[in-house]
Design goal:
By secondary structure, the protein is an alpha/beta fold. It has two domains: 122 residues; 381 residues, Peptidase S8/S53 domain (Rossmann fold, 3-Layer(aba) Sandwich), CATH 3.40.50.200. It has 13 helices and 26 strands. The strands form eight sheets. Strands 11, 12, 13, 14, 16, 18, 19 and 22 form an eight-stranded mixed beta sheet that branches. Helix 1 packs across helix 9 and helix 11 packs parallel to helix 13. The longest helix is centred in the last third of the chain and has 21 residues. The radius of gyration is 23 Å and the shape is globular. The protein starts with 9 loop residues before the first strand and ends in a 7-residue tail after the last helix. The relative contact order is 0.14.
């Protein structure tokens, strides 16, 4: 029998993040689940500081085109060996969970996470918390289980556990006003899709014309691969992919599924958008859909970093405000997972968000009180991933672009400016035409994002097939497009015997000439303040949008390596 834990011996976990606040949340608390209702959680195992420091050192070395170790990626097993999680640490976690009635306890191959399925009653007892059902205000078909108060661990278990995810994090669902256009757009370009709804909307041919990537199917390069992440019922229907393919004359198809992302009923708009446009940009690259029924970045990163042959490029169109529900422990654990991915040669791209500088919570009030403050996004604000912002065409023709006003961007409140972008950020802050918002609204010493951008705004939405052809907007469109272009670049490198690009940001910031600079617009999302696009890198569009022809030259250039 487990010992009774006195109140003084419980440690509040993720104490720096607020529990569900109905005043600012899009999620509504419902009834308590039945005591025997099964809930899956991920326990993040504590990694010793020395091992994590070694991982970060390797991550930066293999990601920097100017370093002698560039491209010398580790295998999954080599990362496991580097993390060196002690067996007794795992044993204590398994023993504690099983002692409370949890079953199906699985240690990930890299030994830094433990997934477990428990009855609600066991979770509430083991973690000294209370669980409830929650339903989204705009997506009433989505129901999740979350903690309605902080969770706790006995003091002796905190030496083994960093956090338990995601009991306090609520997923950000796609805004309903970013899709649903059922008539043609205003773009003044030839119709290349047969569906009348696509007229004047962004199509694969429009992207190819703007970003200069080939639109013909090329030979598949052995070893090349890419993936999209989908959550919360966002599955694809092969019939919709087929109709998109025949109408827009581009190959479509999913080559592999992890977690069961194919539907027999209907496509989710998010899934259709991600798959149709990533595959349209890079039809020659095998595409994997990594699906999880629940939204959990920690589940997802565990899945991709523990696959024996994980896809080289990963596009993720999901995120959250940095401070509303992202505790330091949560962000720290996510960043460790991102470093594991980069050390293994994987590229991870996240959409920068669709609420401008104010995030989903808004710039004032809420859990932070009444002072006006921008709300940076996570993971977009992480220094260990590539963040993709959104643009519109400046006019209604294929050509120069402007910032989409609702595209996420700004400066992290948590992470410092990484070395790879220090010069670019300094140059931006020195510009006299940047028209910066009041300094009290944002963190002048934080990591700037996005890193790059692509079309994603509502001026001319993307034409997507999801049951019907409709217009869809958002950085959820920008991200898979940019990811597809980098997948094509990986193909060039692999065919020439070079390693994949891995973590992209050092390469991006060393090659600003390979992007179309975006010099117009502001990501103020219809309010007064935001960051203004200028010449060079800025906190609204990053380095701009991809120029495939120049990127291909940069990706294939021989570089002089120095230590």
């Amino acid at each position: 029998m487990l010992p009774v834990v006195a109140a003084a011996q419980w440690t509040k976990m993720e104490s720096d993040v607020m529990v569900h606040d109905p005043a600012v949340s899009s999620w509504v608390r419902g009834e308590k689940p039945p005591a025997d209702h099964s809930v899956g959680v991920n326990v993040v195992v504590r990694i010793d500081d020395e091992q994590r420091a070694d991982l970060e050192r390797v991550f930066w070395e293999v990601s920097d085109p100017k370093h002698a170790n560039y491209g010398q990626y580790l295998s999954r097993d080599e990362v496991t060996e580097m993390l060196d999680v002690p067996e007794d640490r795992l044993d204590s976690i398994k023993s504690y969970l099983s002692g409370h009635g949890c079953t199906d306890i699985n240690v990930a191959p890299q030994r830094d996470t433990v997934s477990v399925t428990c009855p609600v009653s066991a979770i509430e007892t083991a973690l000294n918390t209370e669980l409830h059902f929650f339903t989204h205000q705009e997506h009433s078909d989505i129901q999740i289980v979350r903690a309605s108060q902080h969770y706790h661990l006995p003091e002796h278990m905190t030496h083994a556990v960093t956090m338990v995810g995601e009991l306090l994090q609520f997923p950000q669902m796609r805004r309903t006003d970013l899709s649903g256009v059922t008539v043609g757009g205003k773009g003044e370009w030839p119709d290349t899709c047969d569906a009348g709804t696509c007229s004047g909307l962004v199509t694969p041919a429009v992207l190819s014309a703007r970003y200069r990537h080939p639109n013909a199917t090329e030979d598949t390069v052995d070893g090349n691969s890419m993936a999209v992440a989908e959550f919360q019922g966002q599955k694809y229907l092969q019939g919709d992919l087929d109709k998109f393919s025949s109408s827009c004359h581009v190959p479509q198809g999913v080559d592999a599924n992890v977690g069961g992302g194919e539907s027999t009923l209907r496509s989710g708009v998010e899934a259709a958008l991600d798959i149709e446009y990533m595959k349209a940009v890079a039809p020659e690259v095998p595409l994997t859909v990594v699906y999880s029924k629940k939204f959990s970045l920690l589940d997802w990163t565990t899945m991709i970093t523990n696959l024996e042959n994980s896809p080289l490029i990963h596009s993720v169109s999901y995120g959250n405000d940095e401070r509303q529900q992202s505790s330091d422990a949560y962000m720290f654990s996510s960043n460790t997972a991102f470093m594991k991915a980069g050390a293994q040669g994987l590229s991870i791209l996240f959409a920068s968000g669709d609420q401008g500088v104010c995030g989903r919570e808004g710039c004032g009030g809420g859990i932070f009180g009444g002072a006006k403050r921008f709300k940076p996004d996570f993971p977009a604000g992480s220094p260990y991933i590539t963040a993709v912002g959104g643009t519109d065409f400046l006019s209604y023709t294929v050509g120069e672009e402007q910032v989409w006003s609702a595209g996420g961007g700004g400066f992290s409140d948590t992470f410092a400016i990484p070395a790879y972008q220090a010069d670019a950020v300094a140059a931006y802050k020195a510009r006299s035409d940047a028209d910066f918002p009041d300094q009290s609204y944002w963190n002048n010493t934080g990591r700037g994002y996005p890193d790059v951008a692509a079309l994603g705004g509502q001026k001319t939405s993307y034409c997507v097939r999801a049951t019907l052809f409709e217009g869809v907007a958002g950085t959820s469109a920008s991200c898979p497009v940019v990811a597809g272009i980098f997948a094509k670049l990986n193909g060039l490198r692999l065919a020439a015997g070079k390693p994949a690009l891995g973590f992209l940001n050092p390469f991006i910031y060393q090659n600003p000439q390979a992007f179309f600079d975006v010099k117009h617009g502001k990501n103020n999302a219809n309010q007064a303040d935001g960051f203004t696009a200028t010449e060079g890198w800025d906190a609204a569009s990053g380095h701009g949008t991809p120029n495939y022809e120049e990127l291909a030259k940069a990706a294939m250039a021989s570089v002089e390596v120095t230590v």
